[in-house]
Structure formats: C-alpha cells, structure tokens
Design goal:
Oligomer: homodimer
CATH class of one domain in chain A: Mainly Beta
Number of helices of chain A: 16
Shape of chain A: globular
Strand content of chain A: 5-15%
Helix content of chain A: 40-55%
Structural class of chain A: alpha+beta
CATH architecture of one domain in chain A: Beta Barrel
Radius of gyration of chain A: 25 Å
Largest sheet of chain A: 8 strands, mixed
Number of strands of chain A: 12
Chain lengths: 608, 608
C-alpha cells in the first residue's frame, strides 16, 4: 500500500486515544476546538505539505540558497511554500485570539508541523523558527514590540531567527563576544548598538519576506569596557533587518550583513549564515555604525529568556528527526513491498523472486526502523502534550509537575529522537541497497537532512550533560517519581494482558535499575559522571521509549474495536521487537552506569 | 600533533610485530623482500597518496564523472593519479615476477593500499578493481588471455571491472538475465555474443586508459533458448571495451554502451555505470550486434570463479571502510586538539576555553572511534595475513586451515569494518560539530564515501547470511576451533598482566558463550536463524575485534622498549574502553541468540 509519511490512522490514535487530546477541550483556552476542528487542521497540514513542500524536496537540495551582492536569495518555490504555510495560519495557530491566533493545543501544532517536516524539513524551518521567535516576544516583549515584531511574523510579513552561536562559541555560550553598547531609547524600548559575529544562523537572510526579526544574544560591557564573564552577563536583543518606527513604518536598513553562507551536508533548503553585526561598512542606520537592537527583558536575563525558545527548538529538532524518520520508514516499506529479490527459505529455487519485505533481515530492519521512528514521534508528541498540561495547569503544583516532567524529557525528546531518527534514515538507505545510495531516491537526502539533528540546538553530548549532569541532579527525584507513577501504571495494565506481562516485568526491572543509578548520581565524581552521561541518557531514552511502546500496545490491545486492526498488529510487533531485541542491552549499560567507571575520565588526551 | 591518516609507527607495529611479517621472507615466493624493501614500498605509497590522491579529494567529489555522446570522462587529476599508481607498480605489486610483479605479500599490498584509500577511496577504486580483475585472469585465463588482458592491466594500459549485478538482480545473482550465445572461437578462446544489462559497474567506463577489461557474468541458453535456473547456470566472460587480435592489436569497438551514470551520495570519483551489452545500436563488432566475450573456465563455473575476485573485493571493501575510518579519526584528533570550547569541571569559569579533547564526552567519542577504526584496520590486515599463510602453506592441511579461517573472517572483515567504520566517520562529524556538517571539512565527505561500504560487494544482511547461515553451519567447527586456539592463547598471556586479566576473563567467557551458540545453529529453524543472523554476525565481529585489541595490548605491554610509548598507552586505553564500554552488551546479544527468538520471523509483512 502506498503510505503517507505519517499514517493518519496512527496519528489519530496517538493524539486522540493515547494522549487524550479531547480532555483539553474542556479548558477555556482550547474551548473553541473539538475533534472535528482538529481533524480539519490536520487535513489542511497534510494537503499543504503534499502540495507545496514535498514537490520541491529534491530541487531545494540541488539548488541551494545563493549569495550575491550581500543578499541571499532562496528558491522561489521555498518562498512560496513558506508564504502558503503562513497564510494558512500555521505560524499563528498556537497564539492567542488577541494576536489572531487559533489557540490550538501544542499537541495539535506538533502533529501538524510533523507533516511539513516529513515533507521538507529545510523548507519548514522558516516557519518553525518564526513561531518560536514570535512566541518568545509575545511573552517577554512590550506591547509595541509585540505590535511591530510579533504580528508581522504571524502574518507572514517577517520571519524570525535565533542568533546565539559565534564562530568561537558554539556549545559554550558564556564565551560570546558580541557587544551591546547603550544607545538611548525610543518607543520600541531601550536601544543598544550591537557589534559582533553570529554563526550558523538559520534563515539569517533570505528574500522570502521583507523583514527579518533577529533575536540576538550579546553582552553589555562593564564600565571599564570589558565584557562580563560567563552566561550571567548575557542579554537578549531584538535586531530587525529593517528598522521600524513607532507607527510600524519601515526605516533604515539595519547594520547586519551576511558574511557568507554555510554549505551543508543536507538541510540545504534553509539558508544558514554567518552574520556580521555592526561593521558599518554597508549600512549605517541613523548615520552610524552598529546594529540597532532593543533589549528584551532585563540586562543579564538573556540566556534565561532565550531558553524559552531554545527548549521549544530542542523539541522541534526532535520532531524534525522523528518526522524524517517516519518518512524514511514509509518509503522503506513501499520499496520493500515493490522490490523483488531472491527467495525465502520456504520457496523453491524455481519460484519467482519474492518481495524483499518477506526476507527476515529486511523485516528486522523495518521493525527497528518503526520502533525508532514512531517511538521518537510519540516521545515528541508526549512532550508537547506536557506543554499543554503546563499551559492549562489548574494550580501551581500542577504547573510545576508538568514543567518538571517536561524538563526531564526535553533532552530525551531532542537527543534520542535525533540519534535514533538518523538511524531510521540510515536503515532506509540500507533497505534500498545500491539504489538508496543514489540521489535518485529520497532516502539518501533524508539521511543527510536528518544528520543535522544530533548537532544543532545542543549536540548529543550537551544534551547528555543537561540530562545527567543537571536534570537528574537538581530536580531528578520529583521528576523521576512523576514519570515512575506513569511507567508503573503501564506495567500494571500490561501484566494482565497475554504476552505483555513479560515486557511489563522487564520494564519495571529496568526502571528500578535506572532509578537507583539516578539516585546515586549526586555522590559520583563529576568527570566520571560526564564521561558516562551520553550512554546513560541514551539508556534512559530507550527505557522511556520502551514504556511508550508498551503503553500504546496495552491501550490498543484493550480496545475491542481496534485490537484486530493492522495498526494494533504493527504496535504489537514493534513492541515485541523492541523488548526482545533492543531493551536487553540496556541492562548492561545500566550495570555499567552503576559503577560509573573512570576508564574514559582517566584517559589522558595525550594517548591519541 | 598533525597526524597522518595512518600513523606509521602503528602500521609498523601491526605489520611487523603483531602480524610477524618477517617470517614470510623465509618463503621462496617472498625471498626478494626484507624489512627495508617493505618499508620503502610503504614510504612510496604514503608519498604517492599524499601527493596525487589526497589533493583531489574534494575536487573529485564536486566534479563527478561526466557522460556525453556515449562516453564517460573523469577528472584529469583522477586519471593522472591512477596512472601514477600503476606506473609506481602498485597494480602489479602482488603479481609474480613472470608478470613483472614484485611478489609482495598480501599483507604489504593491503598496508600500502590503505594509504591510497584513506587519501581518496574513489580514486583508488580503479586500481583496486584492476588488480582484482587481473588476478582472477592470471589464475583462470589462458596464456594468450593473460598476455592480452592481464599484462595491459598491470602496465596501466587498461583497467578492469566486475560486471555482476543487473537492475533486477543485485543480491540474487541467480536471477541474472544476461545471455551468452556461442559465436565460434578464435585465438583468445571460445567466443560468445553477450546481450544484457549490467548495473552498478564501478569504472564501467572512463577515459583514464584506452581499454577496459570487463568480467561479465552471463548465462548460456539451453537448447530451447531458455536460461538455466539459479546460480549453477552462470558462466564468466572477458568482454573488452576494444577487441584485441591474437597479436594484441586493437580491433573493433565492442558492443558495450553506457546507458547512464549513477549519481551517488559519495564515492563520486569512481564512475559507476549502467552498461548495456549487445544492443547493436552504436557498435557492431565484426559487423554484427552482440558484445564479443571469451569464456573463462568452464560453462557453469562462472560464480565459483568470480568468487575469487568477490572475496578479494569484500576484504578490499573492509579495507576501504577501515582506511576512511582511520582518516576520520586522525582528523577528529587534530580538530579536538585545536578547537577550544568551554571548560572542564576542574577549571574555573574565568579560565580560557579548553581544547575539546579534554572534555570527557569528546574523549569517549575518540576512544570509540579509535576502537572501530584501528580494530577494523587490524582485522583486515589479519585477513590479508591469512591469505599469505594460505599462499605459502607447506602442505594441504596448512592450506585448508588458512583457507577455513580466512573464510570465517572474510564476512566479518567486510561487514564489521563497514558498519563500525561508518560509525567512526559519523563520530568524526559529531566531534567537528556544526563545522563537520559542512562541506568545508573533509569529514562530511568521508562519511558519505564510507556509507557505500555496508552496501557494495554484498550488503550487511548478505554477509550475515554468509556468516551465520553458511560459514558457521558448514565449516564452523574446524574454523572456530582454529580461531579459538588463538583467542585462548591471548587470554592466557593476558592473565599474567596487571589490569588485563579481567579482560581475558571476559573474552574467554564471551568466546565460550558464542561457541556454544554456534554449535547449536544446525538445529535452529532456518527463518529464525536468518532473522537473527545480522546481530549474531555483529556480535562475533565485536568478539574478534575485542580479541585483536587484547592481543595487541598484551604484545606491546610486554615489549620493554615500547611499553611506555604513546602507542602502547593508546592501545591500552582503547582496549580498556572496548572491554568496559562495548563488549558487555555482547553478552546480551549472545543471550538472545541462544534462544533464537522467532519475534522477527513470525512478524507478518502485513503489519507494516
């Protein structure tokens, strides 16, 4: 059967049955929605992705954004896709009615976004970043900043960026050197002149919209001209490509120039720039060098505020990885059904070749791929459902619980999805054999696109430090307890179902093993902990995804109307595969983590 | 320190100390060689690779082979590199003195080839294929075939290909449809007219040399015109691009046309063609359609003879993967020493950023990468040493022992090196962060080049079937016993060394666990076996590589002159990492393999 990248039957199961979306409609914020309105939005996303994003997938890889005369131009088809996306209301969808948004739950926004990312992740990045940028400003901006920097983004007249990294400061933002020098104030807020270089800026320049709203991290110099040390000295600024006056009229071109484009392995449809702020060589707004920026929040709060968008972006990266993995899987299933090669051990030599989907090793790959792709997608949807829980929390305790659980799962949603999503795309190449290694098939590009995900918005190593070195240490107990109650509830339900009790037993054992490792972390030497953090994070991800598979399988097996469906059979097969072939190795990883070996920490760098 | 892709100190250790190359010089075949002559050859390889192959690495990725007017042209720099390689004697090196070869041991040829593959795997493919083609013909060809098809290849006047796959028959060669119709005979042998399509032909056309010697698998039709079923009906033919007469004079252009080039993810410097034989549209040799081919060996022996070249190619694929992995690692070490970012947990916030090689998670990645890269390289060198053992065997029993052990290790040398070699290249991107994802850094291309290796010359799944479904079943006992005696000898030596006894204990336990699984295989249901074959093959590879690491570490720790060297410290650190962080999970894989679960085999394809 020709499958969509994201099977709608499965998506409905995940969103409505597994995550209980309809419960949200009782909340005032989401009162305008119902199952039908959500279905209509998901229909629209599916159609728009298929009509405007997918058809230019290959083309946007072959024809990269161009840079000449200081300006970046992108494929007209990419620009048109973004505008269509904005006009259909997807940028504004999660915003309040006041801002002409639809107030859709985050879970729905995520489900819709998955369609665009599966179709063309690079083309969808402009929209994703714009929503994130506008959300941050809607929360922390002044009314006039919202008027002139949020509304145009929601309307598709401007896009947003996040300008964090610098050539010498990627993972270590405390070392940024971009300076923000006070320059009075105007109706839009306290003004500064920004001087510095920002690297890896996705959507940093383009000709899709007239204006671009950069959110820039910079440091306000001390009285002696030096920059404050570390992250505490970071502030956040709005730096528009074109200045805007109090009435919203366009003024001077700001002093932001494109120093060059990065030429990437994949993800080529998104322009990715080195931006120089405040050089004064090409643009001198109001007659003076220095990019004009407006302070957001208070000085020194920059990183804390930026984390609002960064956490959202981390989940979005996980979503992109999962969506690409879903399409990689769907294409693999289609190919494996069509491609005839060899015979199974039950067939005679004279039989015509069988579809490769019948070969045991191909089934193995498809099962693994399904576990990674759907597991990652489910994990990201769960994170977005926690955002909705937090948004609609009845009291402070409920808010904190949702926030803690979300905090615990965010590095997992980012990094497990990225690492194993790439693996799903890798398997897609393998299933396609030699054909999959050619640029004639999408899986080759899907792999290259997906390979960015373990890198951007914090590498896998950085997520491991966040998870094992921070999340588990500081707030681990409460957050783990919250998750534990969900995990053990699933185990109890599974214990009653034939064939699943053995999985429940394994999961509970692994969970308790992990929990005891986690409790011992505060007494572990820091270098030893850091050298084992990535493995531990990955092991936790596997346990969480194992829980998700069991939870979904229990749910669908217990639903009389669906328990005999193809969807149920697929969930059951994936669950059985994951528990038999994937989870057992986690036991050894946790066994190792219990002793926190110093093998790596004690290795001097001189041995290499 | 700026390192070569393949550290010479390490290479010398591997070849001379670990593999005891000098013992071979006592054999008449290798009597002309000594440590100095081998060193000179390796020096030459290193220099030629650095001077001619490496400088065009990027360029050969950007500028792919071109196809116009039916002819393929490659970069002049690639052509020049190949000719320089041939002129330096590397194609002929392993051949007999009669053929103007140097009679170098295979171990040395492999060590030399590694330099070229590390520098530019795609450019080196022409040479690798030519040596393999010429070797097959030197063994199975007639004297006149050797004169006109082997000598020109050794002299760099022709290159060789292997034409096996067809668009509908990749892994399943029994289904090829290329026909060979008898067409009399001439001085060069029994003639046939070849009609059919061959896919994925590396070096299938180019303008590097005048002539190309294709080795083509085809079927001679039965009396009723049908093709014989299965692999038993396959014969092998020499099909030159240009016909040659008995005196070696060039005649008509043969009826072989290029239908198109494949555009690959990487490995772009090697032309890769769809070839149509016998269409008669452009060339009609001797006035008639049909490519003229000369039978090699007897009818029906084609696949058996071709396995001579295929087994060599499988080891060469493992070597390519290992060599790319070695360069990926060397570049990663260099970058990790140069790139400053963040601080270790022992440094204060005010300290200047540290080189990332000091970060625990970066050390973890470098250790893993070193284990995969050097482990794979050692494994392939070991396989080539077994070829030398076989060549120089004193009697039939010694020949058979070397052949059995080589047969057991060949699928591992191909597939473990490919799978984990790619992983080493993947880690290189991760260590380089965002920079590694750009085409400005070689690691991005190294990854793309390396990704072919788990596919060509038999995918990982096919190697798993060969290993678990054939090698372990048919000849497993004797081959495993031979390896066991080596493994246990290493364990005994390691037991006496401080800190290594624990590894010896683990290795012996894993080995016995694997051996008992292997012994039980003949009674396992075939579909269940095939569905677990890839995991089992990978586990065996890990055990073999674990043994290799321990064996090398024991050797160097016991060498007083070297036990305090950087080389020894590196071996020891990698060994400790591999035994602590990698091998434990194999226990679980073997635990699983013991029960040979039917989870995958029983999954119906309809669930996807």
């Amino acid at each position: 059967m020709g499958q969509n990248a994201i099977d709608r039957d499965n998506l409905d199961f995940l969103v409505f049955d597994w995550l209980g979306l309809e419960a949200l409609f009782a909340q005032p914020l989401f009162a305008d929605h119902n199952r039908q309105s959500v279905a209509a939005l998901l229909d629209l996303a599916e159609k728009l992705a298929a009509d405007r994003f997918l058809p230019v997938y290959k083309l946007s890889d072959r024809v990269e954004p161009a840079f000449s005369d200081g300006e970046v131009t992108v494929l007209p088809e990419i620009a048109a896709a973004h505008i269509a996306y904005a006009e259909a209301g997807f940028i504004a969808a999660p915003f309040s009615a006041e801002l002409d948004g639809l107030q859709v739950p985050e879970t729905v926004q995520t489900a819709a976004m998955a369609q665009f990312m599966a179709a063309n992740v690079a083309a969808s990045a402009y929209g994703m970043l714009t929503t994130g940028n506008a959300r941050l400003l809607a929360k922390y901006g002044t009314p006039l900043q919202i008027e002139h920097f949020v509304r145009p983004q929601l309307a598709g007249q401007a896009t947003g960026t996040m300008c964090l990294s610098e050539p010498q400061a990627g993972s270590s933002l405390g070392d940024i050197r971009t300076r923000a020098v006070p320059d009075g104030s105007d109706a839009l807020g306290a003004r500064f002149r920004i001087i510095g270089n920002k690297m890896w800026i996705s959507g940093g320049d383009h000709d899709i919209t007239d204006n671009i709203v950069h959110l820039v991290l910079a440091k306000i110099p001390e009285a002696d001209g030096t920059l404050p040390v570390g992250t505490a000295g970071i502030s956040l600024f709005i730096v528009p490509k074109w200045l805007i006056d109090a009435e919203g009229k366009r003024g001077d071109r700001n002093d932001v120039i494109v120093a060059g484009l990065n030429h990437k392995m994949g993800y080529r449809g998104t322009s990715n720039c080195l931006l120089n702020f405040g050089e004064g060589t090409r643009f001198r707004p109001e007659g003076q060098a220095g990019a004009i920026g407006y302070l957001v929040g208070e000085p020194g709060q920059g990183l804390a505020i930026m984390f609002h968008m960064m956490n959202e972006a981390r989940i979005a990266v996980g979503l992109g990885a999962a969506a690409i993995a879903m399409r990689s899987h769907a294409l693999s299933v289609d190919y494996a059904r069509e491609r005839a090669q060899g015979r199974t051990s039950q067939q005679s030599k004279e039989a015509p070749p069988t579809a490769i989907i019948e070969h045991p090793d191909v089934k193995r790959m498809l099962l693994a791929q399904k576990c990674y792709a759907e597991g990652a997608f489910s994990l990201v949807l769960l994170a977005s459902r926690l955002i909705d829980d937090r948004t609609g929390a009845a009291d402070k305790a409920a808010f904190q619980d949702a926030d803690l659980l979300l905090g615990l799962l965010t590095p997992i949603a980012k990094t497990w999805s990225s690492e194993w999503g790439v693996k799903a795309s890798d398997i897609a190449i393998q299933i396609h054999g030699g054909y999959g290694y050619t640029r004639d098939f999408d899986v080759e590009q899907l792999y290259r696109d997906n390979r960015l995900n373990p890198i951007h918005e914090g590498t896998t190593g950085i997520q491991g430090i966040d998870f094992a070195g921070r999340k588990l240490m500081r707030e681990g107990d409460r957050a783990l307890d919250l998750l534990e109650s969900r995990v053990l509830a699933t185990c109890r339900s599974a214990s009653d179902l034939s064939g699943l009790a053995v999985h429940a037993h394994r999961l509970e054992k692994l969970w308790r093993q992990f929990h005891s490792v986690a409790k011992a972390l505060p007494s572990v030497d820091r270098e030893a902990l850091l050298s084992n953090a990535t493995e531990l994070t990955d092991a936790f991800g596997h346990i969480v995804v194992g829980w998700i598979w069991l939870d979904q399988t229990v749910l669908i097996m217990g639903d009389a109307a669906r328990s005999e469906s193809r969807l149920a059979a697929g969930k059951r097969a994936a669950c059985d595969y994951f528990y038999n072939h994937e989870l057992p190795r986690i036991t050894q990883v946790l066994e190792l983590a219990r002793s926190m070996p110093r093998v790596i920490a004690d290795t001097p760098s001189s041995v290499f």
